[in-house]
């Protein structure tokens, strides 16, 4: 059978279904499903994503040829249902051409509305509708959209002008009006004439008159847009493969611009920012398509309650609100009721919060899209937990619905409450995306990127944002816009990114050229500090410090559900009691990596540490180590106490010694004085520590083998700390970890020293505690000989940072020089230091676990590299059978959720 490339829908029938998103795209699949469940949707058809792939491989001519018969037949179906004919002069059937990939890619692909119009058809539409203004308004919109999207007239950079916008402004200006709705038929005719001239001027060709030419132009433009720069960037940011392709939806037009009984809008079945179970949305009367989102006029709220809330935030009185910005419930009560019923039906059916688009044509409601709505991390959790309680979904679905990465935004600091209470907002806007942000003002996305690269915190301030600003938005701390509603580009994108955003802030005037803005008269230049509260919409002058977030009951419930299904435990990497406590609050059940070297950089320890390193002989080293012992013991006591009852893996000294000694003259002089030897001696000793390749030099257990007294001191500090705490009723469970083992004998030698010291301390104290001795597996040779090492070790901890470095042969410190290029060129799909390389490094991990457990089934295995907090890597760890992952404190909840997901997948 010939491959089916086109799927039709309309009038309660559809060839597709909601579960066919891979083939029909998200939009097409849901349009089909809405038809099937009796929601009013204009008829249309979907060209499959497979055709997009054919288009990229075989080209335009082939695809048009092969599609023609199916598309013509599908168009007849639309014509029949609409009682109009595509390309007809008297009774033309107009369509929209819409893109739709598997998952929504906001702003990536552009839609063309009112396709099929030309100089004759516009008259036909005018006669048939009896509404000349509507006909010409549709025509001018069509030329504008078609010109931008299909004929490539959309401005590419901020210097470029949009010829259509310019003409629009001129015509409005000449007439002395501000809004597009103030233009009359004659103005619209004038616009059409000048738009077409602009097309001719720019492209050298007349605007296409034939409806079919228009259609194929638009269909191919959708396919082309799959490969445009923005789409490619978005795919890269989200790791979506190019092979997915986009579908094309062709759909009969319904008109929200037919006058005061028509409207268009967008709505959410629940609050996308907070997750509250409140239907909400925005609409505009006598408008079309994306007018609501584009901010051409101030959008109005659908519900009365929402409208009142909005007015309050905007400082608008009830009288003014009711007169100028009535809710849909007030302006079109019947349609509003219909919409409320429909949104409930959609949510009940799809069992998730829906983001919908609707149009009201002359009092009749039509749905144009429904999809699972983008939401903040907080809303994600609240909606999932609420829907569990409301009986929509079960616990496993709750876990699947929550994206571990999105927990991140909840865990991050909010404004310091005291300082916030003492600060007065300089203005207020819409709380478009919650959270707190503070930073320096910049006005252009590329500047935001550049400043952020220099390590600066920036707030991107724009009149409104567009998809071109994506990169800049991603690097900014927060986003402030002067215009746009809750569903503006800035708001939707910021929520998706989990980034704080205040939109439509009152009294904000931005001057891009002079790089300044005034907020209610006060001037802010580029580089000045402001702070945003995306939860309230408040904007503050200056830099307001932040504090840790509070975790609500929904979060705790989610974590409880996660723990119920998970097999792995989650530990943390922590070197201080404070970090250990933070991680414990986030649910860490132990420390997987406590580095001891950071402790030595503290002021009281760096001098004896240097004495130890610079000492001439063992005797000198032992003297210095004696000074370090009580200090180190104190550090361990703090950490053990914070982790009372949970295991703490302490890694013995790991980095090359030269990192600890002073390299400047002043520092070396100081050490000479402390140690009472000559400056030259010190200088020589420091020089002698220099290595050509320190990462592969005298470090890790090579240190402990060369200077056993260091291992002795550290072991003694660990065990004495644990024994002393035991007397206070605190349970320390130390796991002593030898770093950088490559040869089993390296480990054996260290283990002997450790054991001997432990027994000695035990007998001195006439007491003992539970302990373990194990090793990092971070050198490929250790992984390859794991069966030998496992005989000696109680546990393995995979140090995947070093293991990645040594398996790839990439210096962690120099990788930035070529990694971005590798990723750009597709040589590497991801940064292997961020996302575990499952095919290479992961195989070493897998092998070592298997062969280690073959000789010692109870061998405890964990991971302590950066990868321990990255969801896909955590899932891999589950599959290879690790007992735990260990990650930085703030990633602990993310790892807990990812581990649970791995267990139920
Ligand atoms: P996006 O993916 O950017 O949301 P859409 O294809 O959904 O783009 O369309 C853009 C706008 O045009 C939306 O507001 C949508 O509701 C509207 N629209 C699309 N097709 C039609 C149609 N056939 N009739 C009326 N409005 C339409
Ligand atoms: Mg769009
Ligand atoms: Mg849409």
TrEMBL record:
It catalyses: pyruvate + phosphate + ATP = phosphoenolpyruvate + AMP + diphosphate + H(+). Belongs to the PEP-utilizing enzyme family. It comes from Petrimonas mucosa. Residues 456-537 form the PEP-utilising enzyme mobile domain. The active site is at 489 (tele-phosphohistidine intermediate), 864 (proton donor). The keyword Transferase applies. SUPFAM superfamilies: Glutathione synthetase ATP-binding domain-like, Phosphoenolpyruvate/pyruvate domain, Phosphohistidine domain. This is Pyruvate, phosphate dikinase. Substrate binds at residues 595, 651, 778, 799-802.
């Amino acid at each position: 059978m010939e491959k089916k490339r086109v799927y039709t829908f309309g009038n309660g029938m559809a060839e597709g279904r909601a579960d066919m998103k891979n083939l029909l795209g998200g939009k097409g699949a849901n349009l089909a499903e809405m038809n099937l469940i009796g929601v009013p949707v204009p008829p249309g058809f979907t060209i499959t994503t497979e055709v997009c792939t054919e288009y990229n491989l075989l080209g335009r001519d082939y695809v048009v040829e092969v599609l023609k018969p199916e598309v013509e037949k599908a168009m007849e179906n639309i014509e029949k249902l609409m009682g109009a004919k595509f390309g007809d002069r008297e009774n033309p059937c107009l369509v929209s051409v819409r893109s739709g990939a598997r998952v929504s890619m906001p702003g990536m692909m552009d839609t063309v509305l009112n396709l099929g119009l030309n100089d004759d058809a516009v008259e036909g539409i005018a006669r048939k509708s009896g509404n000349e203004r509507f006909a010409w308004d549709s025509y001018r919109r069509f030329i504008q959209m078609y010109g931008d999207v299909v004929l490539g007239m959309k401005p590419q950079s901020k210097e470029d002008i949009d010829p259509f916008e310019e003409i629009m402004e001129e015509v409005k200006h000449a007439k002395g009006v501000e809004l597009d709705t103030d233009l009359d038929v004659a103005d619209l005719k004038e616009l059409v004439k000048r738009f077409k001239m602009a097309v001719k001027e720019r492209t050298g060709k007349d605007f296409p008159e034939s409806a079919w030419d228009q259609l194929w132009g638009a269909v191919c433009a959708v396919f082309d847009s799959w490969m445009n720069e923005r789409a490619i960037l978005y795919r890269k940011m989200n790791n979506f493969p190019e092979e997915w392709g986009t579908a094309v939806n062709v759909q009969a037009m319904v008109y929200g611009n037919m006058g005061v009984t028509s409207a268009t809008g967008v709505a959410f079945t629940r609050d996308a920012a907070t997750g509250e179970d409140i239907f909400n949305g925005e609409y505009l009367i006598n408008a079309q398509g994306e007018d609501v989102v584009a901010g051409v006029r101030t959008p109005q709220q659908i519900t009365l309650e929402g409208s009142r809330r909005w007015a309050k935030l905007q400082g608008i009185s009830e009288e003014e609100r009711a007169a100028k910005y009535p809710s849909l419930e007030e302006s079109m009560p019947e349609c509003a009721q219909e919409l409320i019923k429909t949104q409930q039906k959609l949510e009940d059916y799809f069992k998730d919060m829906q983001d919908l688009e609707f149009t009201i044509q002359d009092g009749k409601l039509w749905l144009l899209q429904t999809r699972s709505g983008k939401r903040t991390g907080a809303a994600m959790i609240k909606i999932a937990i609420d829907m569990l309680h409301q009986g929509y979904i079960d616990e496993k679905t709750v876990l699947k619905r929550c994206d571990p990465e999105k927990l991140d935004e909840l865990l991050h600091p909010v404004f310091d409450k005291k300082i916030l209470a003492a600060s007065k907002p300089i203005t207020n806007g819409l709380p478009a995306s919650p959270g707190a942000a503070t930073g320096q003002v910049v006005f252009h996305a590329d500047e935001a990127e550049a400043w952020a690269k220099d390590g600066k915190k920036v707030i991107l301030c724009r009149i409104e944002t567009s998809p071109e600003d994506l990169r800049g938005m991603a690097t900014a701390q927060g986003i402030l816009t002067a215009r746009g509603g809750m569903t503006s580009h800035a708001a939707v994108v910021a929520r998706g990114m989990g980034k704080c955003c205040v939109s439509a802030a009152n009294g904000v005037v931005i001057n891009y050229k002079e790089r300044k803005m005034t907020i209610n008269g006060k001037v802010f230049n580029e580089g000045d500090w402001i702070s945003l509260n995306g939860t309230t919409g408040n904007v503050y002058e200056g830099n307001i410090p932040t504090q840790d977030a509070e975790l609500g009951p929904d979060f705790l419930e989610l974590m409880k559900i996660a723990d119920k299904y998970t097999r792995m435990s989650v530990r943390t990497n922590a070197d201080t009691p404070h970090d250990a406590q933070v991680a414990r609050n986030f649910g860490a059940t132990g420390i997987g990596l406590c580095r001891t070297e950071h402790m030595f950089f503290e002021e009281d320890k760096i001098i004896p540490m240097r004495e130890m390193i610079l000492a001439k002989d063992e005797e000198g080293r032992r003297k210095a180590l004696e000074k370090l012992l009580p200090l180190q013991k104190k550090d361990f006591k703090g950490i053990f106490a914070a982790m009372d009852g949970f295991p703490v893996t302490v890694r013995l000294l790991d980095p090359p010694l030269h990192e600890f000694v002073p390299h400047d003259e002043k520092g070396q002089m100081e050490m000479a004085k402390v140690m009472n030897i000559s400056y030259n001696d010190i200088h020589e000793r420091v020089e002698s520590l220099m290595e050509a390749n320190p990462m592969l030099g005298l470090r890790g257990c090579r240190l402990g083998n060369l200077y056993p007294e260091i291992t002795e001191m550290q072991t003694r500090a660990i065990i004495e700390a644990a024994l002393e705490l035991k007397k206070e009723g605190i349970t320390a469970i130390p796991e002593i970890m030898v770093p950088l083992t490559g040869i089993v004998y390296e480990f054996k030698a260290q283990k002997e020293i450790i054991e001997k010291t432990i027994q000695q301390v035990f007998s001195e104290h006439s007491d003992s505690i539970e302990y373990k001795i194990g090793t990092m597996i971070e050198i490929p040779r250790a992984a390859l000989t794991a069966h030998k090492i496992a005989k000696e070790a109680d546990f393995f901890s995979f140090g995947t940072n070093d293991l990645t470095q040594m398996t790839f042969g990439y210096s962690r410190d120099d990788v930035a020089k070529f990694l971005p290029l590798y990723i750009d060129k597709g040589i590497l799909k991801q940064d292997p230091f961020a996302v575990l390389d499952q095919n290479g490094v992961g195989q070493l991990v897998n092998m070592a676990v298997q062969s280690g457990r073959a000789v010692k089934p109870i061998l405890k295995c964990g991971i302590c590299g950066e990868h321990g907090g990255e969801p896909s890597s955590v899932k891999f760890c589950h599959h290879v059978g690790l007992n735990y992952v260990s990650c930085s404190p703030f990633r602990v909840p993310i790892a807990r959720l990812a581990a649970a997901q791995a267990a139920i997948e």
